[in-house]
Design a protein that fits this description.
membrane, 53% helix, ATPase_P-typ_TM_dom_sf, 15 helices, 2 domains, receptor, transmembrane helix, binds 2-acetamido-2-deoxy-beta-D-glucopyranose, EMP70, alpha+beta
């Protein structure tokens, strides 16, 4: 086991060393073929040689570290013979004998808008496999042309003994129409041009930060982002002012009633003082949710800090996946600690705390694992490179077993021990028998309330969400991590306020089941995010096919679930502080 981790570390070092290519004139430079796939489907990537390109004998995959593997990178050698600073005019790569099935494969790839990714000295380069041309002719059967590009032109810039920049372009004059007929022979060729540049080696990745694939960087709608921020903050402000006034009224009313010492029938939230601190059903699971939420909050926080520190620059392949994996393992202690601590303080020392620990260790990982297995199976059936190799899965399992699980347990034991002797005493005594809940109008029912709760927080992040989706499920680059951080903080603030307000209104109509409700109200944004997926899929993206569709909805379901837990925790935590405060301020007997 340790061996594996050790070799993982070595692999990482090897990858670091590999990028530092120093070449002498005429030194060979290996060109790797990384993947091909439909441009619209970022996850549907296949081996370069799944298309009948000319392949070398040795198709072994170059060893990669965890990040690129998670991203679906599997570089294989190619036949391109490139030497440092040696120009090449029109060199033949090979004459490929394409069978009818091969031609069909290429044709389908051209229809699906396939692109390829090659790598030269760790620099990714992209191009299209072919192009589709539709002509306006009478004979409709012959109107579409399927052109396969057969000539690639590499233009490479160098500075002293380093490769700085690589461009690849397909020669539009050398293309083959695969429209008619079946088997044929196609000749592939390439050319290489070299030019000197004075860009420093350290800056060579910065061009990828500006545009990723084709010239399609974001046009940021600053105005709309600021607009939504201001609008949401204003609304939240109004809401809190109203709430303060109403609360002030309540307090003076209750105080007056006490002074007069009349046996006037009490109304409003004070009436349920004997019920609000009764622990909700399935309290162990409740604690586990709050613990998991705390862990996910810290995970997102650290990810954003890393992002602001520019750790996820575009050349750092798969760094975000690796960071998420490692940070999830390292923050696991939070889940165990918060869950066990809360359980211990509310429930006392004789609760079933092992069960509680088990719940906090599985609430999020198990759904994630199930989804991963399902999607990985689909990827394997599609023979896609998005399927993780067995070794990588083992490494992830080992990390879970050796880091995540022990940390959760240590956190849980610590949480339980620190809770000992510090049991929570509610400001009002809890009645033995729950109070009956009066009839509730339809717009105060749980479903309506939860729907209302998600509306405002969702509108705060709606615009950001579009950019995130376009970079995660498209080829755009996200660089505005500062803004994302602000949006995240705003989301938390708005969620807290909305949940507090809704909890107040709920208690005001003497409905005292607020524990789970506040969790759901806070987390309700997660439902909205998942609903937004449908809008994005059908309205904003051109993803297609069963594999990409299941990847998109599958992983978004897990992400929405994570958002639900995380924001639900915020909703509950702030509602709890609020409830404890208002009931400490009134005299209850
Ligand atoms: C389609 O067009 C090509 C090129 O113009 C021509 O060679 C071919 O004969 C046409 N095929 C049919 C079925 O009309
Ligand atoms: C690569 O393409 C870009 C954009 O077209 C151009 O600015 C740059 O000079 C090219 N670099 C090389 C080495 O050809």
């Amino acid at each position: 086991m340790l061996n594996r981790l050790g070799s993982l570390l070595l692999l990482g070092l090897a990858a670091l060393a590999r990028g530092q290519g120093l070449y002498k004139e005429a030194d060979p430079i290996e060109l790797y073929a990384n993947k091909v796939g439909p441009f619209a489907n970022p996850n549907e990537v296949y081996s370069f040689y799944s298309l009948p390109f000319c392949a070398p004998e040795d198709m072994e995959i170059r060893r990669e570290d965890l990040g690129p593997l998670l991203k679906g990178d599997r570089p294989r050698k190619t036949l391109y013979d490139i030497h440092f600073r040696v120009p090449q005019t029109l060199k033949q790569l090979c004459k490929a004998k394409l069978s009818e099935a091969d031609v069909k494969k290429f044709r389908q790839a051209i229809v699906d808008d396939y692109y390829f990714e090659l790598m030269l000295d760790e620099l990714p380069i992209w191009g299209y496999v072919g192009e589709l041309e539709t002509r306006a002719v009478l004979d409709t059967a012959n109107a579409t042309r399927y052109y396969l590009f057969t000539h690639l032109d590499f233009s490479i810039a160098y500075n002293a003994d380093r490769v700085i920049e690589v461009n690849v372009s397909a020669d539009p004059l050398q293309r083959v129409d695969l429209g008619q007929g079946g088997a044929r022979e196609v000749s592939f060729s390439y050319s290489v041009r070299w030019q000197a540049t004075d860009v420093a080696f350290g800056d060579r990745m910065s061009r990828y930060a500006q545009s990723s694939f084709l010239p399609q960087s974001f046009e940021i709608h600053w105005l709309s982002i600021i607009n939504s921020f201001v609008l949401v903050l204003l609304l939240t402000g109004f809401l809190s002012i109203i709430l303060m006034r109403v609360l002030k009224n309540d307090f003076s009313r209750y105080a007056a009633a006490e002074e007069e010492e009349e046996d006037e029938e009490e109304t409003g939230w004070k009436l349920v003082h004997g019920d609000v601190f009764r622990l909700p059903p399935a309290f162990s699971a409740f604690c586990a949710y709050v613990g998991t939420g705390a862990q996910l909050l810290s995970l997102v926080f650290f990810m954003l800090v890393l992002a602001i520190m520019n750790m996820f620059y575009p050349g750092n392949r798969g760094s975000m996946n690796t960071a998420a994996l490692v940070l999830y393992a390292l923050t696991a202690g939070t889940a165990g600690f918060v869950s066990a601590h809360m359980f211990g303080r509310f429930y006392g020392p004789d609760g079933r705390w092992a069960w509680n620990l088990l719940l906090s260790a599985t609430l999020f990982p198990v759904p994630l694992l199930c989804m991963f297995c399902f999607l990985n199976t689909i990827a394997i059936l599609y023979e896609s490179q998005a399927a993780l190799p067995f070794g990588t899965i083992m490494v992830i399992l080992v990390i879970w077993l050796l880091v995540t699980l022990p940390l959760t347990i240590i956190g849980g034991v610590l949480g339980r021990n620190t809770a000992k002797g510090r049991e929570f005493t509610p400001p009002c005594r809890v009645n033995k028998i729950p109070r009956e809940i009066p009839p509730i109008p339809w717009y105060r029912t749980p479903v309506c309330q939860v729907f209302m709760a998600g509306f405002l927080p969702f509108s705060a992040i709606y615009i950001e969400l579009h950019y995130i989706f376009a970079s995660v499920w498209g080829h755009k680059l996200y660089t505005l991590y500062g803004i994302l951080f602000i949006a995240f903080v705003m989301l938390l603030i708005v969620t807290a306020f909305i949940t507090i307000a809704l909890t107040y209104f709920q208690l005001a109509i003497e409905d005292h089941r607020w524990w789970w409700r506040s969790l759901f109200s806070g987390g309700s944004t997660g439902f909205f995010v998942f609903a937004y997926c449908f809008f994005y899929y059908f309205g904003r993206s051109s993803m297609f096919g069963f594999m990409q569709t299941s990847f998109f909805f599958g992983y978004m379901l897990v992400a929405s679930y994570a958002a639900f837990i995380m924001l639900g925790t915020i909703g509950f935590a702030f509602s709890f502080i609020f409830v404890r405060r208002i009931y400490s301020a009134v005299k209850c007997d």
